[in-house]
Amino acid sequence: TSSLRINNVSKIYNGSITALSEVNLDIPEGEFVSFVGPSGCGKSTIFKIIAGLSEPTSGRVEMINASNQETMIDRNDVGFVFQHATLLPWKSVLDNVTLPLELKGVSKHERHERGKEVLEMVGLAGYEKALPRQLSGGMQMRVSIARSLIAKPKLLLMDEPFGALDEMTRQNLHYELLKIWEKTGMTVLFITHNVFESVFLSTKIAVMSTRPGRITNVFDVPEYERDE
Ligand code: ADP
Ligand code: ADP
Predict the structure, then answer these.
(1) Interhelix angle for 137-149 vs 93-103, to 10°?
(2) Gene3D superfamilies in the record, alphabetically (predicted)?
(3) Would you call the peptide bond into 212 cis, given omega within 30 degrees of 0 as the criterion?
(4) Residue owning the nearest CA to atom 16 of ligand 2
């Protein structure tokens, strides 16, 4: 199988702030990896670099295929979910979710078919015509997740997606997310401050430290911890 390789990545902002220092990690396809660590240790920075939204100062992030060849990450294969549901308030749930396909010029019929499919995956079938403000915070997060899934990413990056939600809502979303992960087989990278959340959800936990930002430990999570 292939893997994602973070290869000696450093990031220095403005020539002075070392956000990441020689970070290395291999992530086999299909893993669910949580990144935990104090504020400012570079979690968001490494995600932006993986997503291609930011350039590393040195080092690189690449895919290693089954024949051990390096390839670039195709940005079309990457989905991103942010802490706050960044939905367009004047657009319906369905139009929000299908926006990435609209930008790619996919036909309306196909957009709607696929939009209904992903809304069903996140438990929001029937809410196509609703506006974001009519939904609870947890439901808005589900819409954001649906939108991140619409182009069938192989890699999903989630930057503290459930941090702003109450405990019950968060737990429900944990189960939904694990179902989606199992169904799609995609690789999920997940930032959290919540160690319980990381243990419950992930196959591996990457612990980061600050000054300079580094991965100091990587743990495998035993399966029974995850399945409750
Ligand atoms: P985390 O997500 O773990 O809180 P970040 O990746 O946001 O950490 O930030 C890592 C370090 O880099 C922090 O010191 C932060 O202030 C700094 N930083 C992040 N983004 C920028 C930026 N665009 N310009 C300058 N410094 C930044
Ligand atoms: P996070 O939620 O990851 O901690 P922050 O609130 O630290 O993010 O930062 C929000 C935004 O500001 C991010 O896009 C980050 O890259 C940028 N940023 C963070 N620190 C700095 C900084 N010292 N200078 C400039 N931009 C920064």
Answers:
(1) 20
(2) P-loop containing nucleotide triphosphate hydrolases
(3) yes
(4) 45
Looking at the CA of residue 41, tell me the nearest atom of ligand 1: 3
Query: Which residue among 35, 44, 191 has the greatest number of ligand 1 atoms within 8 angstroms of its CB, and so is best to mutate?
Result: 44
Length of the chain, in residues: 228
Ligand nearest to the CA of 37: 1
Contact present, 38 and 209 (Cβ < 8 Å): yes
Question: What tens digit of pLDDT does each residue of 7-37 get?
Answer: 999 999 998 899 999 999 999 999 999 999 9
Output the CA 17–ligand 1 centroid distance in Å. 8
- The sign of the CA dihedral 205, 211, 213, 215 is negative
Between the CA of 121 and the centroid of ligand 2 the distance, in Å, is: 32
Digit-coded pLDDT (tens) for 102-127: 988 999 999 999 999 999 988 999 99
Strands 3-13 and 58-64, sheet pairing? antiparallel
The minimum-distance atom of ligand 1 relative to the CA of 54 is 23
Which ligand 1 atom lies nearest to the CA of residue 191?
Answer: 2
Among 212, 177, 180, 205, residue whose Cα is nearest residue 191:
205
**Contact criterion met (CB below 8 Å) for 4 and 63:** yes
The amino acid occupying position 20 is: L
Q: Whose CA is nearest to atom 13 of ligand 2?
A: 44
